[in-house]
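Methods — Computational structure assignment.
A single polypeptide chain was analysed. Its primary sequence is given first, followed by the predicted tertiary structure written as structure tokens.
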Amino acid sequence: MPKYSPLQQSSIAHFHTRLQSLKITLVFAITCIISSFAFLAVEPEVDVMSPVVYAKQGEAAVLSCVVQGSPLVDVYWTDKDGNRNSTWWKYLIQKIPAGNGIPVIFINMIIRPAIISIHDYGNYTCNAKSNESHVQKAVELKKPGNVQPAATRNQTKSTDSKSRVLITKPEMPT
């Protein structure tokens, strides 16, 4: 171990003390910042995974959304008549928190297999409530027969001066 002069030892001790003080100050500052976020109110937001879900009669259907905000007082699905859905013989509601203090909840509504009938098609709504507001987004449950046939359009693209390639792109249903 190298030997230090008394002046160097004093400087090292002073530097060490300042470093410890800086560590304590940083820990205190970080704790204050984290604590202030715990009381920060963030308006809720709702986003659906797919705005249209297709399911045949007798099949299961999964409607999914993600809700974020703080504080979240309530998150839930409503049916096409505005009635709140809960887990029972027809529906399975899954609320999956993101965890680690992240104010995000994934909420799935599963219409159980062999249950979907003609009366179930329509709009379902994912809802999020905070102390101050209520936001929602709809998902439409449709029969697959309602999908319009995809129209095609042909485009040509030059690959070189001698050959041409035909590309067919289907258009998305509207």
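Note: The chain has two domains: 1-40, 42-145.
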